[in-house]
Amino acid sequence: MEGTVLDPAGGAPGATSASVMHRARGLWRRRWVMLGVALAVTALTAAWTLRQPRIYAASTSLIIDVTAPRILDGEVKEVMGEERSNYWFNKEYTGTQSEVITSRAVASRVVDRLGLSNDPGFLGLPANQDEKTRVQALQAADAVGLLRSRIIVVPGKDSRVMNIGVEDVDPKRAALLANEVAAAYMAENQALKMRVTDEARTWLEVRRDELGREAKAGELAVYDLKKDADMLSTSLESRLSIVSERINSYNLKLTEVRTRIAAQQARVDAIHQLRKAAGTDETWAEAVPGAKDGPIQDMKMRYGEQKVACAELSERYLPEHPKLLECNRKLEVVREDLLKSLANVVRSAEMQLVEVKGEERNLNKLLDETKAEAFVVNKKAIEYGQLQRESDDNQRRYEDVLKRLKDVELSGLLRTSNVRVLDEARPSLVPVRPHTRRNLMVGWVMGLLLGLVAAVVLEFLENTVASQADVEEGLGLAFLGVVPRMEGGREQGERDLYVHRSPRSAVAECCRAVRTNLLFMSPDEPCKTLVVTSSGPQEGKSTTCINLGVAMAQSGNRVLLLDTDMRRPRLHRAFGVPNDFGISSLVVGEGSLDKAVKSTEVPNLFVLPCGPLPPNPAELLHTRAFKDLLRAASEKFDRVILDSPPLNAVVDAAVLATQADGVVMVFKAGKTDRGAAKRALRSLADVQARMFGAILNDVDLRKSQYGDTYLGYQGYGPIQDGPKGAKGGVAPS
């Protein structure tokens, strides 16, 4: 079976074009509210405008140059600055002058000159006041602030023209005030210039004296430093040059000595290595550089000759022979002399190395002393340079201040101004305020906006179910259709059987559309049992149930209407059948279903009355016997429609919803509260009831909010078949 089991409290997600159109139609429906608010606001605006005093304006035009005309030499500059061509500078300058014109200083000059603080007409005081009250009002009034509030400064576009406007209730006084404000501005501008010049001259005189003392102290400090450093006869640059030459000379000699040390050190290292490699050979020193000098070569020859002689004697004589012994003694003496000479050569090389290293130490000491002296001289040079720069800077600043002081004194004697009057103000007899036409237009627009806000607020405060959008988007239910307001007789029976007796009416057509929507929701598995309920009483639930049964019966189906409202049953009265035997009797086991079912004047439509009212309807509907009764009825009839009590009143409808194939809600258009509808749907959701949808009942098609949506029901065929001019409504449940 088709249908939905959903949470009705959340509504439909998001807005659709249908809801937008619904809101738009709601606003259009309240167009008279918007129009009324707009007219009321416009009328109030007109009344307020007519009560306002007439305000007149006068304007004086000034030409404001950045600087005054130059009379002195261009090198003599004034204190107030110089002219520039920068766009942002000119813009800021114009804004500054506008602030000066509207300043309290300028307004005070005008008030004092014209005596405005004692002018009741200017202050807006009533003329019929007594003297005491008038004096108190004059003392309490702020004439300067009042004048400032009336001054309007408008700079000329792309020019140096400044328009000074003043508003007043008297056109002549407005022109007078405008001219006086311009004159006061020029006087204030000149006074400001003189005041700044005097302040600058005072400051420059003080600064001149201070810089004079600082320059003199700097010169004395330079002299004292030169005296302490003995730089009176020799300049500092000469001393630095002498020390630098000495350092260079010492560095050259030190480089030369270190070269000799390197060579001598290599010679001594070679001698030590040769001695270590010779071992016990006493003649190793022959390989030392310098051992081949003449005397040593002579000793070597004598040693060789003596050695040859001893060798010859050893061949002729025995070792103890006196000649051989004498020869060997002489050989030993020559050998010792040779070895001593070779040793002296080695010691000479070592002593030369020691001597050269001593020379290097002396040179390093002299170089260090000279460098220390150079550091001292450089430090004195730094101190001297710093003092000299400070002295020169003080002297330069002293000269600059002295020159500027003379310029300021000279420029202070000038009385030129950079402001000139272009056009004086003249009285104008045309008021500038109030702007009657503009105020009315603004009032009309504001009224329309306020009316729109009021219409929107009323639309959103509307909390009833009144349209298809409210059903689908606000409650999340399928919309089955509408039932128009019934136009027929005043009798209850005529309204209940309106579809049967007026088959060509809009109500009948709408009921057939609802029937079609219900049947097409599940064409393969048609619903057998259907509960029709509402959120509260008096919403047309029973009448809708009857008319829906009539529409289904007209399609050829055998339809049974069950009056399950065992608290306020009404179906038996609608069809004129007795209520002494019915559902309550069958549930307790009295009689049979065929006996209890009553036929009606509508073909294929039958009704099963409620029967005697039981004390416990909810428990009775929850019994096994009622379920069997419902199943037996669904087997004998094509459709079984249950007319149940309202959901928010009793729990009977929720109990019936669990036993039927589905539920159809009936909402009275413009009357059913959305909160009540959501509570009713929540109770159905809690029991997992299957919802087929909702029917919007008692829709007045003549209202503009429904005319566009359901125009077809009004424009196609007759709307009613009932008596002409009859009035009616929806039958109470």
UniProtKB/TrEMBL annotation:
Record keyword Cytoplasm present: no
Subcellular location(s) per record: Cell inner membrane
Gene3D superfamilies, A to Z: P-loop containing nucleotide triphosphate hydrolases
Keywords recorded for this protein, A-Z: ATP-binding, Cell inner membrane, Cell membrane, Coiled coil, Kinase, Membrane, Nucleotide-binding, Transferase, Transmembrane, Transmembrane helix, Tyrosine-protein kinase
SUPFAM superfamilies: P-loop containing nucleoside triphosphate hydrolases
One GO cellular component, as annotated: plasma membrane
Transmembrane parts of this sequence: 32-50
Domain AAA: 540-669
Transmembrane helix found in the keyword field: yes
Domain (Polysaccharide chain length determinant N-terminal): residue spans on this chain: 25-113
Primary location recorded for the protein, binned into one broad class: membrane
Coiled-coil spans in chain: 339-373
EC number, as in UniProt: 2.7.10.2
Membrane topology: Multi-pass membrane protein
GO molecular function per UniProt: ATP binding; identical protein binding; non-membrane spanning protein tyrosine kinase activity
InterPro entries, per database record: AAA_dom (IPR025669), Bact_polysacc_biosynth/exp (IPR050445), GNVR (IPR032807), LPS_length_determ_N (IPR003856), P-loop_NTPase (IPR027417), Wzc-like_C (IPR005702)
Reactions catalysed according to its record: L-tyrosyl-[protein] + ATP = O-phospho-L-tyrosyl-[protein] + ADP + H(+)
Any one Pfam family match given in the protein's UniProt record, by short name: GNVR
PANTHER family (alphabetical): FERRIC ENTEROBACTIN TRANSPORT PROTEIN FEPE (PTHR32309:SF13), TYROSINE-PROTEIN KINASE (PTHR32309)
Family: Belongs to the CpsD/CapB family. Belongs to the etk/wzc family.
Protein name: non-specific protein-tyrosine kinase
